[in-house]
Each structure stands twice: as C-alpha cells, then as structure tokens.
Amino acid sequence: MTVILAADDFDLSEEAPAKINLALHVTGQRADGYHLLDMLVTFARHGDRLGFRASAHDEFSLSGRFSPLLAEASAGGNLVLRARDLLRQAAHDAGFEAPPVHIHLEKNLPVASGIGGGSADAAATLRGLTRLWGFPLPADTATAIALRLGADVPMCLVSRPLIARGIGEAIELLPDFPSFAMVLGNPLVSVSTPEVFRMLTRKDNPPFALPLQATNNRMQWIGTIERLRNDLEPPARALCNEIATLSQLIESQGALATRMSGSGATCFGLFDHLEQATAAAAALHSLRPDWYFQATETIKGDA
C-alpha cells in the first residue's frame, strides 16, 4: 500500500508563501540581459509546504494537487534540491555537519504561474534545513545562496511585504504594510517568461513613485496600487487570451483592484474581507471548475 505523506508528518515544516507582485515596473536592462525592475511585493498565507527530517540517505518526496507536474524534476534536480546542496556545501565550508535529509514538498501552487512557487520552495528549504541542521547561516551567505538560486529567492527568504529593485536583490521591507483579503486565480495555462520579456515594447519605464510617508491604511494602499502597473501584463495577455478573461471574472466578483502577478498567468483580486474573497473564489470555481481559484489573506508587514 502506498503511503501518502504530508509536511506535518515530518520533524519540522516550513511554509512557502505565494509571492504576489502587486506592481512591477520594468525600468531597464543590464548588459548581461537581466532586466531591472521595481516591484511592490507581498506574500499570501496560502502556498506550498515543506517537511524535513533526518534520514539514512537524501530523499525527496512530493504530494499536493500540482505535484505530478514536478515528478520528473524530482529525479533530475529542482530548486529545492539545489538549495539543499548549496546550503550543505556552505555548512561544510563553515565546519558544520549537514547529514542526509528527507525533504517533502506539498505542491499546492500552480507551477510556473508568476507567484514564485519554485523560489518560495527554495527559500523555505534554506530556512528549514538551517533549523534541522542547527546551522547558524550568516545573512550575507544566505543572500548569496539565494541569488544563486534565482532573483526571486532573496525576497521569498524574507516572505514579508517589501519593495524590490534591481534584479530583485535590493530589498526594502515595509513594516507598516497592511494585510489584504485576496483571491488568486490561474487558468492553468503556461506562459513563457522569456517570451513575455521579449515582447516588451519599452524597457525604460519610470521607477515607482510611492507615498513618502508610510501608512498601514488599506484603502490608501489600494489607491496607490491602482496607480501602479505590471508592465508584463500587456505582453502576457497577448500570449495568453485566458488572462484577460480571468481578470474580468475576478473583477466581476466585486474586487477592489485586479492585476496579474509576475509574468503570469496568475491574477489576483483584492477584497474588503476574507469572507467576500471566500465567496468570490467559490463562485469563480463554479463558473470555471477547470481553473485554479484560492481565497487567502496576505501577511502583514509586522507579522
């Protein structure tokens, strides 16, 4: 009989919150091809979960709605396994033991969907293994490892509301940022991130113009978010017609603001209360049971 594991079955677990780009401005491009971005980022209380425990040899297992899409990656290596290997090397270099470990990933988020699933999983792996191994990972080493794993991983390592600039490495935390009720939606259609960037008509957009004084007022922030943009949304919509339909469906449920996250195809709607978001997600699921919808709340800046 096959035993289906869950993160709670392990010695310790780590949440891997979905990363939500409330706004994303493309402000330039480096000589090496990396795009320069200004991003207003928050994190949802819904996401993947990882479990960790000591093992006689390294193991990696999967569960969750979207785990079949990662089954092949588990054999050939993915961001979780790369994070494990890089952290183990850093531990050995510092004279610490990093014995074999069984890592279990509950894949609850759609794959390659613009909400940082893989990056969040890698960041959670770094957090979980430093606890399991008792390795006091220096902040600069953590940042260096995170950047080697991907431009989104440093902000996922923080998993708190922030502004990220450059390629994502210049992070400014927003301690007063409020929590939002939110619906996440995805048509379960993949969108090529390189193709989205290739189709940009302009790569030198102005950087963010945010209020000078920090505020925790939700409605003021919603007004600010509406004045900002996701510069990747127009090309993503051109590549994937479902994004426009998805956005319209979420908006029709009374969302205060609606936008695509990252390079898509996930869109989000902000709502007054979690009860409204939950009702909206249920209605959307009835309309499109073949798509992904999830009601959640985002993490406060001082959480």
Automatic annotation (TrEMBL):
Keywords, sorted A to Z: ATP-binding, Isoprene biosynthesis, Kinase, Nucleotide-binding, Transferase
Keyword Transferase set for record: yes
Annotated EC: 2.7.1.148
MF annotations from Gene Ontology: 4-(cytidine 5'-diphospho)-2-C-methyl-D-erythritol kinase activity; ATP binding
Boundaries of every GHMP kinase N-terminal domain copy: 78-158
UniProt catalytic activity: 4-CDP-2-C-methyl-D-erythritol + ATP = 4-CDP-2-C-methyl-D-erythritol 2-phosphate + ADP + H(+)
InterPro entries for the chain: GHMP_kinase_C_dom, GHMP_kinase_C_sf, GHMP_kinase_N_dom, IspE, Ribosomal_Su5_D2-typ_SF, Ribsml_uS5_D2-typ_fold_subgr
Gene Ontology biological process: isopentenyl diphosphate biosynthetic process, methylerythritol 4-phosphate pathway; terpenoid biosynthetic process
UniProt keyword Kinase, yes or no: yes
Enzyme class per UniProt: transferase
Pfam families per the UniProt record, alphabetical: GHMP_kinases_C, GHMP_kinases_N
Active site: 19, 152
GHMP kinase C-terminal domain span: 216-285
Record: residues binding ATP: 110-120
Pathway(s) the chain acts in: Isoprenoid biosynthesis; isopentenyl diphosphate biosynthesis via DXP pathway; isopentenyl diphosphate from 1-deoxy-D-xylulose 5-phosphate: step 3/6
Family in the record: Belongs to the GHMP kinase family. IspE subfamily.
Function: Catalyzes the phosphorylation of the position 2 hydroxy group of 4-diphosphocytidyl-2C-methyl-D-erythritol.
Alphabetized PANTHER family for the sequence: 4-DIPHOSPHOCYTIDYL-2-C-METHYL-D-ERYTHRITOL KINASE, CHLOROPLASTIC
Protein's name in the database: 4-diphosphocytidyl-2-C-methyl-D-erythritol kinase
Organism: Rhizobium leucaenae
Classification of source organism: Bacteria, Pseudomonadati, Pseudomonadota, Alphaproteobacteria, Hyphomicrobiales
